[in-house]
Amino acid sequence: PGRVVTLLEDCGACTWGVAYEVRGEQIAASLDYLNTREAVLGGYDTKLVKFHPQEKDAEEPILALVYIATPQNPSYLGPASEEDIAAQIIVSSGCAGHNIEYLLRLADFMRYFCPQAEDKHLFSIEEALISILPCLYYTEESLEET
Fold first, then answer.
1. Cβ atoms of residues 44 and 67 within 8 Å
2. Is 50 exceeded by the pLDDT of residue 1?
3. Is 38 a known active-site residue?
4. pLDDT tens digits for 56-99?
């Protein structure tokens, strides 16, 4: 299993990200897939929240479906230091790929698409992961040097 970004319920918090609109026949198929992956298999609660698009012409927030993590999930790792999370990420992968790539792409997304959002936790995990990676990479030359 892999460590993924997990939303925890916090009434005063703000989450930055992408919302996808599904229509027509996509709705039932998308909800079936997400409910199985996130609610049945994944241990998440389903919530409707207000989503505020970044576009200037968006007049009012729209309702968006989110999945909030529950500690009752047997795979739930819970809170940890940035260093411990980075170590978990390095040894984890999921069906969509390795968690290192997941973290690095997420951090890049936040920098590029949400530069006004200061996600110190995310960037601290990224920094911890990057500091660990050189310790894991070795070549024959580096082994001969030691």
1. yes
2. no
3. yes
4. 677 788 898 888 777 777 777 778 899 999 999 998 887 778 88
Q: Which of 9, 25, 38, 101 is labelled catalytic?
A: 38
Minimal CA–CA distance to 87: which of 105, 100, 106? 100
Q: Check: CB of residue 48 under 8 Å from CB of residue 63.
A: yes
Give the structural domain span for 93: 80-145
Q: How many structural domains comprise the chain?
A: 2
Backbone φ and ψ of 98, nearest 5°: -80, 145
57 and 112, same structural domain?
Answer: no
How many Å apart are CA 25 and CA 62, to the nearest integer? 20
Evaluate whether 101 touches 90 at the Cβ level (below 8 Å).
no
User: Could you tell me which residue, 7 or 72, shows the higher pLDDT?
Assistant: 72
Question: Tell me, what DSSP letter sits at residue 52?
Answer: -
39: amino acid identity, one letter: A
Cα–Cα distance between 20 and 65 in angstroms, integer?
A: 10
**Model confidence over 93-132: pLDDT tens digits?**
877 788 899 899 999 999 998 888 888 999 999 999 999 9
